[in-house]
Amino acid sequence: MIGLAIAAVVILYVIFIYNGLVKARQVKEEAWSGIDVQLKRRADLIPNLIETVKGYAAHEKGTLQEVVELRSKAQAVPAGDVAGRATAEGMLSQALGKLFALAEAYPDLKANQNFAELQQSLEEIESEVQMARRYYNGAARDLNVKVESFPSNFIAGPFGFAKAAYFEITNEADRAVPVVKF
C-alpha cells in the first residue's frame, strides 16, 4: 500500500512538472506570436513610408532600396529562427534610421502630413515591438529555468523540451551609445 502511494505521488509530481513545462512553452510561443504581429505591422507600414519618401528624395534611391531589400529579407526568415529574425530586424531598424535621417535633409518631406503620420505610426510600432521583445524574453527565460532546473530537467529532456533562444541584438553597432553633439 505504501509503495502504491509513493508511486502515485511520484506520478502526480511528474504530471505537475510536465504541465508546468507545457505552460511555459505555450507562453513563450504566444510571446513570439506577439513579436511576429508587431514586426508584420511594421513591415506593412514600410511600403507606404517608402512611397512617401520617393516623391521627395528621388536621388536617394540607394537608401530606399536598402530598406525594401532588408524588409524582404526579414520577412523571409523562417518562423522558428529567433536569432535569424533578430539579426534581420536589427539590420532593418538601422536602415529605417537612415531613412528618417534622410528626412532631415528634406524640410518639405519632414513637414509632409503623410510622412509625419507614418513616422508616428512606426514609432508606436517600434515601442510595441520593444515591449513584445521584453515579454518574449521573459517567457523564454521562464521556460529555460524550468528546462534546466532540478528536478524538472529530468522530465524536460525525455519529453523534448528545449531551451528557447532569446530575441537579442546581435549587431554590436546597435548596442553602442549614440553620440550627441551640439
Brief digest:
Belongs to the LemA family. Helices cover 79% and strands 0% of the residues.
Compute the number of strand runs: 0
Compressed to H and E, one letter per element, the order equals HHHHHHH
Shape: rod-shaped
What is the oligomeric state here? single chain
Structural class determined from secondary elements: mainly alpha
pLDDT averaged residue by residue: 83
β-sheet strand percentage: under 5%
The CATH topology label is: Helix Hairpins
| Measured distance between first and last alpha carbons | 81 Å
Number of domains: 1
Quick one: CATH class?
A: Mainly Alpha
Helix content: over 70%
Low-confidence stretches: 174-182
What is the count of helical runs?
Answer: 7
Helices, strands, pairings?
Layout: H1 2-56, H2 61-76, H3 82-104, H4 107-111, H5 113-148, H6 152-156, H7 172-175
Your description of this structure?
The chain is built from 7 helices and no strands. The protein is an all-alpha fold. The chain has a single domain (13-167), classed as Helix Hairpins (Orthogonal Bundle), CATH 1.10.287. The longest helix has 55 residues, at 2-56. The radius of gyration is 23 Å and the shape is rod-shaped.
